[in-house]
Amino acid sequence: MASVYGTKLKLSVFGESHGDAIGVVIDGFPAGLKLDLDYIGAFMKRRAPGGSFSTKRTEPDIPRIVSGVSNGFTNGYPICAVIENTNQHSSSYQDKMTIPRPSHADYAAALKYGDHVELHGGGHFSGRLTAPLTFAGALCSLYLARHGVEIAAHIKQILNVSDRSFADNVTADELRELKGHSFPTLDPMAAEAFATIINSARDKGDSVGAKLECAAVGLPAALGEHMFESVEAEISQLMFAIPAVKGIEFGAGFDFCRMYGSDANDAYEYKDKKVVTKQNNCGGIVGGMTTGMPVTFSVAIKPTPSIFLEQDSVDMQNKCDAKLQIKGRHDPCIAVRAVPVIEACTAIALTQLMLKADGRKL
Prior knowledge:
Helices cover 27% and strands 23% of the residues. It is of the alpha+beta class.
């Protein structure tokens, strides 16, 4: 199982959804960063279960830092954080080994790991494992803030309802304000419409997916490499560590297929003695490198596969078709809780790129 990420900055994620604890070990993080525990706690709380639109599994998600910090500052040694699991209901998952849940990892995991695979609550495949990623991302966000980088995301689309997109010249202040919204949208009317859709899906025992848009501002130009270590590649690798992510596009993304080059190209100009582009269709990245404009991308989040409607599956023990009625506690839409996870994984990728670029310290 590949649960380790990175070269300059290395992360190792451990634990299972219904195990005693989950956590992360972070190696290569610079010494000298003062930990803002209130900031980290608030970041983690945005992802934690128990909100109006999430599973009723309540977890405090308070990380216990057991190494890598001395007197409130990172000391350069590996940082280990442990998050206790306190509210598991494993009885809801007794039949999942023999009857795999559609669009979950049950079937492939059973083939790969055999009879001893742990799948209660999704095991190591669960979205619960995004909690350690969120802690690591919160830490990286503190590092990036020291270098003037701000990151935020919002829900851009659910079903046929859309929020407006980030402006080409979105600012750090606007991103900070967005992170203060309980329901992360740019247009309050979109938040109301999204809430109605999610509540309707929950009432039907169903679920909905979403498109999320993320922006990062304050990055220096020429960060990243061409071909195999591009900014897009680094960000994408982290995005696909989030179980629900099934697609990603940078800048105009797939809308490029509807454009002429004369419309798509980001023309340059000087503004306040700084080179900028007149628009930002490329999402702040060309040739795998940043341009100094905001880095923007969108990800597709699939509908929560655990729905309460009866579904078709197979009985792997008796080798026949079967019906499955899922029990337990599940999100009708993970979009709200996924927003800080997207931000966290973006922060991890950008910290890796910053450290690769010049090994910069605090």
